[in-house]
Amino acid sequence: MLTPVDIQQKRFKSGLGFDKKDVSSFFEEVSRSYGELYKSNAELKEKVITLTDTVQHYKVKEEDLNKTLLRAEKNSQESVSNAVKTAKNIEMEANSRANEIIKEAKDEKDRLETEISDLRRKYAEYKAKYQRLLREHMDYLESTDFDREAEDFARSNPKPEPEKPKEEPMFGGDPQMRESSGSSLGSGRIALKSTQSNSSNVYGSTLGGSGIDPFLENF
Question: What is the spatial distance between Cα 20 and Cα 177, in angstroms, rounded to a whole number?
Fold first, then answer.
């Protein structure tokens, strides 16, 4: 490619037909115009190179941004998928645990209802049993046999007369007399206790009661 210098230094052989001055003037004008065009072209080339580098830089940035967006989208999808899976697992676990709790509560309720039913049945049985025993005792107490046995027992075990307190004689320190007097008093207490014991045994075994003779007073 010709440069402005090449045009300026171009020389032609002298001869007939052209005015040397006109040719030189023309070459100078062509050289000047071409120089301006060449300079402008060079500047445009530099701008093109700069713009090309800039475009390339932004292309790289765009590619990086696209990759980042793709990774972010992928990570977002994975996060959403993991969150959905986790939520489903939590929901399934919660439902399973809730079902277990409900089943345990139902089993406990059934067990308590069965236990309450058994207790009610046993209570009814014990109540009927004690009512039957009470009726039997009441019937026996109201019967003539009980009155006859009570009268016979009262006749066979008369109420002893209470002993009047006696003044102890002055034995003057005779050990034998004091021992004889103590033996007499002790035998009286033993006889009274034996009578009460027999009465309690009769009323306890015969009547099925507490063993207390209703016809004897407390001494």
Answer: 199
Scan for tokens 């006696």, then name that residue: 166
Tokens of 29: 């004008």
pLDDT in tens, 132-149: 999 988 887 777 666 666
The owner of tokens 């115009």 is 33
Q: Which two tokens stand for residue 8?
A: 């300026």
Please check whether residue 34 is in contact with residue 8, taking contact to mean a CB–CB distance below 8 angstroms. no
Q: Residue range 173-178: average pLDDT? A: 49
pLDDT at residue 32, as a whole number:
82
Q: Is 48 left (phi over 0), alpha (psi -120 to 50) or beta?
A: alpha
CA angle 128, 132, 133 (to 5 degrees): 120
User: Under DSSP, is residue 157 helix (H, G, I), strand (E, B) or coil?
Assistant: coil
Amino acid identity of 168? Answer: E
Distance CA 54, CA 66 (A): 18
pLDDT tens string 84-102: 999 999 999 999 999 999 9
d(CA 118, CA 145): 40
